[in-house]
Amino acid sequence: MFDRLEIIGVEGLPEVKEGDDLTDLFFTALAARKESLEDGDAVVVTSKIVAKSEGRVVLLSSVKPTPEAVRIAEETEKDPRLVQLVLNDTKEVVRVRNNNLIVETRHGFVCANAGVDESNVEEGRAVLLPKDPQRSAERLKREIEARTGKEISVLISDSFGRAFRSGVTGVCVGVSGSGVPALLDRRGEEDRFGRIARITKEAVADEVCAAANLVMGEFKESVPIAIVRGLRFKCKRGEKEEEGKEEEGKEEEGEGIKEVLFNREDDLFR
Amino acid sequence: MFDRLEIIGVEGLPEVKEGDDLTDLFFTALAARKESLEDGDAVVVTSKIVAKSEGRVVLLSSVKPTPEAVRIAEETEKDPRLVQLVLNDTKEVVRVRNNNLIVETRHGFVCANAGVDESNVEEGRAVLLPKDPQRSAERLKREIEARTGKEISVLISDSFGRAFRSGVTGVCVGVSGSGVPALLDRRGEEDRFGRIARITKEAVADEVCAAANLVMGEFKESVPIAIVRGLRFKCKRGEKEEEGKEEEGKEEEGEGIKEVLFNREDDLFR
Predict the structure, then answer these.
(1) Bridge-partner residues for A53, per DSSP?
(2) Which of B120, B169, B193 sits opposite A191 (nearest CB)?
(3) Would you say residue B62 lies in a domain?
(4) pTM to 2 decimals?
């Protein structure tokens, strides 16, 4: 393994509005801090500013709740218009209990309120998750690489609660770049006693977003982007695989964050 | 928020055996790498080496499985002796499905196999979780602070799977030190629009262990300790609270990792 990582918070971005060029804002903030990108850097961006730049902010007064939204709103003591926004982005309601509304989003993420959030936005508005955060990650990666000539990864992060443990942690909702696999497959690796690994897959992209959350803060959004420097999963892969180059290419064009989503039959908790 | 973190992997520890002084091994490895601790450092130690030093390694041939263990072993295609070790550390079986055995451990952690693991140990043996990883963290913190005079935090980490997302991530099973709260309480903080936070608690200790996992690797255990440098949650708390000192004291003597465990009535998924 590599032995030293750095996590650099990039603060100083202005309030992001629909149509803003995030890549532009990022490089301006980076320059102000006399920082530049290096090959292999992972750039973690909060879903909130991605969503805002993509116009995923909704005026609550424009929302007409359906009877289902009204019913769930009563049960959970939420604003029925907010519940309607949640249902609009929902594939399946997973739990309604203790004022919580846990759903599977259209994207396949199981989280509270489909990621719809009223914090860090003007009163009377709510921010949705990006429409397709995986594609947002891919687009941002292309844009940043085009401007720097460096090979980097981009991760879109959000904060989700967990089953069985209290509190939110940073998780990944979109990842692009061969340096940060959504799932690192360790099958076939041997331990120090020559035995084969049984725990086989590490959710590296989620760990990178959890790490970035430590400098981002949960609420103030003063640090909406972080750089994680020193990850070398690709090099590791390169060492392991004879057909290194080809494998890297495959990884890059993989499914991205969808790799961490269970097939329904493998899901132990539904 | 602080704007730069460093995560330093500490490799070069020998194979840990019962009775070994982990603090001693840690400082030897640290010296070999010409590294020293600083005030505020968080030292993350894998539960595996803590367990080994505490003698939590069991010879499978010494285990007599009960009929219940035999039944679950058949259903999950596991070694009945291993299942017995799991049940010995189990408060409640949560799920038996698709060859998985998910339990709530005596400590209150919901995880696969009660953390009992056959990797990175000699053939025919299994490593249990530390008996009381919260106390192990407290003990290691005291020992390390006594040798350095620095104020640090210690976290014991493990890798757990998650509901609804594939792959394991680093999580915390014991934490001691005012610099890394198990849950960072953000209630009452205002966002940039002057609105009060709704997402209130961030599982900081779990995020620190996830971050450390990125340099530790899941399997080889060549890097069983990591230092996370630059966290300043305590300073942040100091700014917020009028009665700073007292609050810090309270934090330190708090419940540690038990803060992230749900009361049964708040658990949405059981």
Answers:
(1) none
(2) B120
(3) no
(4) 0.92
